[in-house]
UniProtKB/TrEMBL annotation:
The keyword Cell division does not apply. It comes from Equus przewalskii. Belongs to the tweety family. The lineage of its organism: Eukaryota, Metazoa, Chordata, Craniata, Vertebrata. CDD domains: Tweety_N. The keyword Transport applies. It is found in: Cell membrane. This is Protein tweety homolog. It is a multi-pass membrane protein. Its main location: membrane. Calcium-independent, swelling-dependent volume-regulated anion channel (VRAC-swell) which plays a pivotal role in the process of regulatory volume decrease (RVD) in the brain through the efflux of anions like chloride and organic osmolytes like glutamate. The chain crosses the membrane at residues 43-67, 88-110, 214-235, 242-261. It catalyses: chloride(in) = chloride(out); L-glutamate(out) = L-glutamate(in).
């Protein structure tokens, strides 16, 4: 659901959220998370474009260095054989760059694992919410069916048995009205029954996308690692063809790396805006998708003492009605069974039904508390 009680964004979230944003016309854009607005989308695309700028500068630097290294050599005296100028510097520069690249790859593996863990926690929270909401619907349906069955069978039979005593019939009809009132109150507690949005489907979609994202990033990191290792191998064995092949592969890896970096930078900035204040956006989006009232969503997303349980009145009325039914059944058992022994069987069945219903009711009260959803 929403942010848990006492949620505080991390320092990285706060830092990225404070970064200035601008659209394509370089006009300032608010840092509030608003992916549906065109200006905000342009701001994220501009962040991603910075990676393209970095790629262009890298390619220009490499091209200038290669032109200078290959075409700007000083003339050599005839008959002299000297090693290429700067050969040792080039080798050690390559080695240093490869070591830095390997360190970056290690950080990439760590970040990929942390991202996967975060998405797994999100999926787990969604599955927990789906389990809680499904349990609420199941308990409400079970209690309504039990009470309806009791009204149709046991209470009807009890009225027929007690026909000769009008006061006992009146008490039985009072229990019937109470049971029907409880069933009506309980039906309003299954607030997620007709909602088209399924947390289970959202969790499956998130897991599906994350599975392919994780695999794609792992393959990219492995490709970069292989290029680094084969380049080091070529330098160690003085294999020119291997170094040339890995240099060409490095250009491909360079493009992929800058591209993924741009995508990740835009994603990180967008997620920082979302994580700085997630409740507002999630609450508005959920209300738009589900059509539920703001009082229900505010209670479950915020989960603090300032927002009261929107179902408290229904729960209180249902609890009082169940207690009244139970006391009426006990009074009927004392008054009716000595005179009408055939009334004992439906009364015992009714008491068993009420005991099960009361147990389910207490479980339902616990599930309807906002902390039940935030435990996931």
């Amino acid at each position: 659901m929403g942010a848990p009680p006492g949620y505080r964004p991390s320092a990285w979230v706060h830092l990225l959220h404070q970064l200035p944003r601008a659209d394509f016309q370089l006009r300032p854009v608010p840092s509030g998370f608003a992916p549906q607005e065109q200006e905000y989308q342009q701001a994220l695309l501009l962040v991603a474009a910075l990676a393209g700028l970095g790629l262009g500068l890298s390619l220009i630097f490499i091209a200038v260095y290669l032109i200078r290294f290959c075409c700007c050599r000083p003339p050599e005296a005839p008959g002299t054989k000297s090693p290429p100028p700067g050969g040792g510097c080039v080798t050690w520069s390559c080695i240093a760059a490869l070591l830095v690249g390997c360190a970056g790859i290690g950080i990439g593996f760590y970040g990929n694992s942390e991202t996967s863990d975060g998405v797994s926690q999100l999926s787990s929270a969604l599955l927990h919410a789906n389990h809680t909401l499904s349990a609420i619907d199941h308990l409400v349906l079970e209690m309504v069916e039990r009470l309806g069955e009791a009204v149709r069978t046991e209470l009807t039979t009890l009225e027929e048995v007690l026909t000769q005593r009008t006061e006992l019939v009146a008490a039985t009809r009072g229990a019937r009205r109470q049971a029907e009132a409880v069933a009506q109150q309980l039906q309003g507690l299954a607030f997620w029954r007709d909602v088209p949005l399924s947390p289970l489907q959202v969790a499956e979609d998130v897991s599906f996308v994350e599975e392919y994202r994780w695999l794609a990033y792992i393959l990219l990191l492995l490709l970069e690692l292989l290029v680094c290792l084969f380049t080091l191998l070529g330098l160690a064995k003085q294999s020119k063809w291997l170094v040339v092949v890995m240099t060409v592969m490095s250009l491909l890896v360079l493009i992929l790396s800058w591209g993924s970096m741009g995508l990740e930078a835009a994603t990180a900035v967008g997620l920082s805006d979302f994580c700085s204040s997630p409740d507002t956006y999630v609450l508005n989006l959920t209300q738009e998708e589900t059509g539920l009232g703001s009082d229900i969503l505010s209670y479950y997303f915020l989960c603090n003492q300032a927002v009261s349980n929107p179902f408290q009145q229904r729960l209180t009325l249902s609890q009082r009605a169940l207690a009244n039914i139970h006391s009426q059944l006990q009074g009927l058992e004392r008054e009716a069974v000595p005179q009408f022994p055939s009334a004992q069987k439906p009364l015992l069945s009714l008491e068993e039904t009420m005991n099960v219903t009361e147990g389910n009711f207490h479980q339902l009260v616990a599930l309807l508390h906002c902390r039940g959803l935030h435990k996931g």
